[in-house]
Amino acid sequence: MKDIVKTFGEVVASNHVNFEVKKGEIHALLGENGAGKSTIMSMLSGIYRADSGDIYINGKLSRIRSPKESMELGIGMVHQNFRLVDTLTAVENIILGEKSNKWRGSSWMKKKIEEIEELADKYGLTFPTKVPIWQLSVGEQQRVEIVKTLYRGAEIIIFDEPTSVLTPGEVEQLFLTMQELKRNGKTMIITTHKLKEVMTIADQISVMRKGTMIAQMSKEEATIQSLANLMVGQNMADEGFSIKVIEKGKPILDVQNLVVRTKLRINAIDRINFSVHEYEIVGVAGVAGNGQKELAEVLTGLMQLYSGQIVFNNEKLTAPSVQQLIDKGIAHIPENRMKSGLAGSLGIIDNLMMKTYRSNARAKFGLMKKKENMEWAANLIKKFDVRTPDMVSPVAQLSGGNQQKLLFAREIDINPKLMIAVHPTQGLDVGAAKAVHEMLVQLRDSGSGVLLISEDLEEVMQLSDKILVLYNGKINGVIDRGQANREVIGQLMAGLNYKEGAFYEPEIVV
């Protein structure tokens, strides 16, 4: 890619960028949120068109004007947010849109299933082929996406933040798959923020900052510290920061024998007990699908409990609405900021007012206080360092880090007694993630309680005063700060029990 320029209004997303990848290598493209790396990859995959510059594939000048043309050139992309139809099976997703002159009877589908299973086995990407996507784990869904690109003939595969939603075990499996793809001559480009993973898997590394390519090097020439400094343009320790030990206050949240059932009448949360105090961060660790989502939703009014009780600030909550919980002082950073947290088509001010537009500070006699709201929003933008071209641009156009800081600005502005943060740094670069961590610690130090639900073990271990490990909807272990390590938490996440310094398989009760 030579001298690539792409602008969005007055924002220069790609400023005369040059980017080169050799055949058969794993190339990591690093940068903060908003650095321009996703824009570059979107132009390579045909989602955007460059304003100027040239793209050469195998030495030949190529005009990529659509994803179809990109695919015909042997380029495939595994998106961070999977492009899959939940109600279709894995095989149906893979063959979706395929042209065929043959009659599509049962034998045709049977041959397709065999063909796809053979392709998946070749690269260690097995998954249930006849099961609807919504019944597959996140790791299995990602394998479907990878096989889909391979099935369509991809020789260059772009992975957009591929490990952001995976467990440690799934990350290891993905890296084994990447090595197998490399042995078969495939070329891979990874956009990521996780520096340790880059040093594990990448052959070559390129770093972007503010729309400009600032460095390209081999893995042997790089260190985690040097990459972090290049990304953010300042000296930044790779180990983050430590938080001071502080005495916890009175209980804010007390969960007693809580049971939450899914629509299929399965206990997603099965008789758990825990509490969150003032001046305390309680971390929740676990493999995806072990009840974390349901726990967050029942505590924020999005699901109803089946049995047990929730006591918040000495008040028993039976079936409160979302609005009632907001009024009581519960803030929520949802797992998917653009699906459940922000309205992408609306501007900064509208998104900031979502929880307070009824208040006297924001409206009078049902009419918005335009001037006051503009000043209030501008102050929040400055305080939380949200970088935006203006106050009316759709928030969907902001980088992921700025979207997350905007979401935190809204939630913290209501002065919450309890913050429920679900995967708060998912998909964020090292600088934005550190800013989010600092906001959570400041909340805790100011007397609020924080329930941190995350699949990032480093994050949970670094921030939490106490860690709960969920397995099959139950709390399989409680670990205090200072006693936690990856091995212990990983074994508990896998369902093993821990007693007297040793792990053992739990008894099976029939």
TrEMBL record:
Entry keyword set: ATP-binding, Nucleotide-binding
Pfam family, one: ABC_tran
Span of domain ABC transporter: 1-235, 253-497
Transmembrane segments: none
GO molecular function: ATP binding; ATP hydrolysis activity
Record-given protein name: ABC transporter ATP-binding protein
Organism whose genome encodes this protein: Lysinibacillus telephonicus
Lineage summary: Bacteria, Bacillati, Bacillota, Bacilli, Bacillales
